[in-house]
Amino acid sequence: MSTQIEPIKVADVGDIEDEEALVVDGAANGTGRDIAVFFSDGQYYALDDTCTHEEASLADGWIEGEEVECPIHSARFSLCTGAALCLPASIPARTHKVELRGDEIWLHPGVPVEGAVTEVTA
Amino acid sequence: MSGTVAPGAGGNVVIVGGGLAGFTTAQDLRKHGFDGRVTIVDPEGIPYDRPPLSKEYLDGSLPAAKLSFVPDDWYRDNAVELITDRVVALNPDEGLLELGGGRTVSAATTVLALGGRPRTLPIPGGDLPGLLTLRTKDDADRLRDLLVPGLRLAIIGAGLIGAEVAATAVKDGATVTLIDPVPVPLVPLVGAELAVRLHAMHAAHGVDVRCAMTTGISLAGEEYTVTLNDGSSVVADAVLVAVGIVPETNLAEAAGLATDQGIIVDPTQRTTHPGVYAAGDVARIRLADGTLIRRHEHWESAMNAGRTVAAAIAGVPLPAHGASWMWSDRYGVHVESVGDLVNGTPIVRSVDGVPVAAFRMEADGRMIGAATIDGGTAVRAARRIIDRGLVIDPLKLADPSIELKKLAR
């Protein structure tokens, strides 16, 4: 049985500007890999921060709509599903669930997301 | 053994060449739902990516398996057949391709994605069998086997490949001499300001840079002597000739297709035969008014050409491609450029007197080109500025405190 990683609060709403991202350090998030939390068009998303083609931070990439483009070789990934949308990447990026708790942004490291993005708890 | 492969029910496509253009054609055909048979014929087998060959693959930090565009099972999962062979003849009227192994393959549609072969030097000794070139994985393996500390490597040609190999080889402990007749190479690609900075990095990293024409190469025992037109010479254990490529047009010419320093295609990448397309380094677009466009030899243009071919074959709208984009990596810096760095008025963005970005502007204020060194998303922003025809204040462009991304919105 795998160890459940506890969700962590990563920021407050408003801390991440539109089409920007913040990186949650791999040691801090418990997965050992840096995770980028993106904010784009009013939605929060989280992917492993490292491009699956070559080591580059996706948080430093071009964020637009539901996609992020790697700053080095322009591989594009879906922020919703992590799918690699064009070469040179062909391996998807891992997604992680993001949850809004009031004005707080919580990350569920290691909990994948399919299609949906932000879950708002009442 | 010989035989004939029958076309599939939905029409079939045979792609000759498994480089980026060929692979992308296959990938996008499936993305568009093309359900006919798709075959890639390449003597090298599984398609792979070439940019790392002069960098991470050459220095051993990237394993061979990571060169592949996609995991091996992608081909089975997407019903894309791979034939490891060379096409030696094409009969476009009958849709027949003859393979080196004697087999004949029939194709409703053929895509020629043959790329090019390294250009040789028309000088005495320019055809010595031991001279190195870098185009394929085998070439990179051969060079890598030689790259031991202390190797004296002469590189003829300081363009993208020559410069990248110089940087990699120096890192691996080789003694490198880089020879080019142009005082500052790559000016047309990245503009003069950044090209000067990039070229100066060679000397700063201990590369012996010679600005001269190579007039001859000789081999005595295991030692090469490269003679230059300035009267000097370079003694080396290995010589890499990196002076560009010649498009691989022989097959097309023999098949009667129009060629002119490339296989002539229309904007849909269709050759002068309706059943044959060409894509990538080998193809040269002729516009409806007869204008011949210069061939592009960059990674993304090959991918885009493959996307266009696939869309044309599948009968879906052709994709729009923005301003052309390229990158290079050397000495730990990342260089990118987009659009036209030859024409227009330059605007340079510097930090502490060091140029980090250069832009080219039309008189009406539109941007037509941009290049950066370690610019992050700046070139992506510039590309959108160019593609959308935005007019940007030149003072803001020159100000390094203003993120280009903000200007692109």
Describe the structure.
The complex is a heterodimer of chains A (122) and B (409). Chain A is mainly beta and 122 residues long. In chain A, 3% of the residues lie in helices and 39% in strands. Chain B has 409 residues and is of the alpha/beta class. Helices cover 23% and strands 29% of the residues of chain B. Chain B has a five-stranded parallel beta sheet with strand order 4-3-2-8-19. A five-stranded antiparallel beta sheet of chain B has the order 21-22-25-24-23, with helices on both faces. In chain B, strands 1-7-6-5 form a four-stranded mixed beta sheet. In chain B, α1 packs parallel to α8. The longest helix of chain B has 16 residues. The N terminus of chain B is likely disordered. At the A-B interface, loops of A face α1 and α8 of B.
Number of strands of chain A: 11
Instruction: Find the structural class of chain B using helix and strand composition.
Output: alpha/beta
| Low-pLDDT segments of chain A | none
Overall average residue pLDDT of chain A? 90
Q: Can you write the helix and strand succession of chain A as a string? A: EEHEEEEEEEEE
Topology:
The complex is a heterodimer of chains A (122) and B (409).
Chain A: E1 8-12, E2 20-24, H1 26-29, E3 35-40, E4 43-48, E5 62-64, E6 67-69, E7 76-78, E8 84-86, E9 97-101, E10 104-108, E11 118-120
Parallel strand pairs in A: 9-11
Antiparallel strand pairs in A: 1-10, 2-3, 3-4, 5-6, 6-7, 7-8, 9-10
Chain B: E1 4-5, E2 12-16, H1 20-31, E3 37-41, H2 73-77, E4 80-83, E5 87-91, E6 96-99, E7 104-106, E8 109-112, E9 116-118, H3 137-146, E10 152-156, H4 160-171, E11 175-180, H5 187-190, H6 192-204, E12 208-211, E13 214-220, E14 223-228, E15 233-236, E16 238-241, E17 245-247, H7 250-254, E18 263-265, E19 276-278, E20 283-285, H8 299-314, E21 325-330, E22 333-339, E23 345-351, E24 354-361, E25 367-373, H9 378-387, H10 394-398, H11 404-407
Helix pairs in contact in B: 1-8
